[in-house]
Write a structure and sequence with these properties.
Length: 388
């Protein structure tokens, strides 16, 4: 008795008693009664095979509600299914739920996935061991990593249709198998869409209008500093016909793909492209605006101040709990107080705070995924004259 084919592919007759296994991931489409592979190869299918392929090529579309999407995806993986398509569906569902991160983690009895919504990690989907392992391998494949290596740390990017920002994926071996963390980036926001108070926004835009100096965007990790820097670069690009350069580790969203004329450099210390080396190079590129994703060391701080002091507008992110702490952080990194006083324009500090969701009506809320709260930015802006 011939065993049933595994649910991730189809066995086809290719000759006298010969059979070929075709993974569903390799199928491009079903055309008439034929199966068409990505390679262009075609195979004729009987009606039963056509129905199986049709199901495998149609993972559930996201509805935006975590519980409903989880049930639909779990049902899809119980029969004929394509791991790559399931992985992309998982990313789409997490994005539709407003998640900033997606986790897939090996556990004692299988795999679990979680999504981070409004800063809170919540359960999404549980999968049996074989299904979870195939989904993990599929995520590594689409991220440009090695699917067959589960014993090393790997990082990659996953292109997403209709989104200018790739998802950033990181894979790590654990005692029970492997875990994946995928950072999801949404659409780019304009400055007036960030939720800043009107007075803060007006003063921030006035500082962006300066031709030279250092403007810091400070705050804790996950506070949206990069989102603000991108919005500021977009605002500047609309109003100034200058040359703009952004130094990032890593590049989170590709601005030129969104129509924002900013050249981005992804730092790579392993290849010698450190923040210090990139800043030295930027000073020779005839640019008017330089953005630094994050100032992390004394060399980077000194060069950012040098660029600001020599006629360029420099925007930079900095981890700090307050504007005063941001100032002290730069002094601790060895920046001379006189240089800082001469070059610093101001510090925008931001953090995210949970507030009751204004859209909740008691009957289920897609805006906050039934958490009952959303996160809003709390900002303060202090010009340099009030810091010293």
């Amino acid at each position: 008795m011939v065993a049933s084919p595994p649910p991730e592919g189809l066995r086809l007759r290719t000759g006298w008693l010969g059979r070929e296994f075709v993974p569903y991931d390799e199928i491009l489409r079903l055309e008439g009664g034929d199966l068409v592979l990505h390679s262009g190869e075609r195979h004729a299918l009987n009606p039963g095979q056509q129905e199986r392929v049709r199901r495998a090529l149609a993972p559930p579309a996201p509805c935006g509600r975590v519980a409903d999407d989880a049930r639909a995806l779990a049902a899809y993986t119980e029969d004929d299914w394509s791991p790559v398509r399931a992985g992309r569906a998982l990313l789409a569902m997490a994005s539709a739920a407003g998640a900033s991160d997606l986790h897939l983690v090996a556990e004692a009895e299988g795999f679990s996935s979680q999504v981070r919504v409004a800063g809170e990690l919540r359960g999404f989907l549980s999968l049996p061991p074989s299904t979870g392992a195939r989904l993990m391998a599929a995520l590594k494949h689409v991220a440009g990593c090695l699917p067959y290596r589960s014993d090393v740390v790997q990082e990659g990017r996953i292109p997403r249709e209709g989104v200018t920002a790739d998802a950033r994926a990181a894979f790590m071996p654990t005692a029970l198998g492997e875990r994946a963390a995928v950072r999801l980036f949404g659409r780019l926001l304009a400055l007036d869409q960030l939720g800043f108070e009107a007075s803060v926004l007006e003063r921030f835009e006035a500082l962006l209008g300066e031709r030279s100096g250092l403007l810091l965007v400070a705050g804790p990790s996950g506070a949206g500093k990069t989102t603000t820097l991108y919005a500021a670069l977009g605002w500047l690009a609309q109003r100034r016909g200058d040359a703009h350069l952004s130094l990032e580790d890593p590049v989170e969203q590709r601005l030129r793909l969104a129509g924002i004329p900013v050249d981005q450099v992804e730092l790579s210390p392993a290849r010698g492209l450190t923040a210090e080396a990139a800043l030295v190079g930027a000073l020779r590129q005839d640019v008017d605006v330089i953005a630094v994703g994050e100032i992390r060391d004394s060399a980077g701080a000194a060069l950012a101040l040098e660029a600001a002091h020599t006629g360029r507008l420099v925007l930079a992110g900095l981890h700090a709990g307050s504007p005063q702490e941001a100032l002290q952080r730069l002094l601790d990194l060895g920046v001379e107080r006189g240089v800082l006083e001469a070059s610093l324009l101001g510090v925008l500090h931001q953090r995210l705070q949970a507030r009751p969701c204004p859209a909740c009506d008691g009957s289920g809320c897609a805006a906050c995924q039934d958490l009952g709260r959303v996160r809003v930015p709390i900002t303060s802006l202090i010009e340099a004259g009030r810091l010293f």
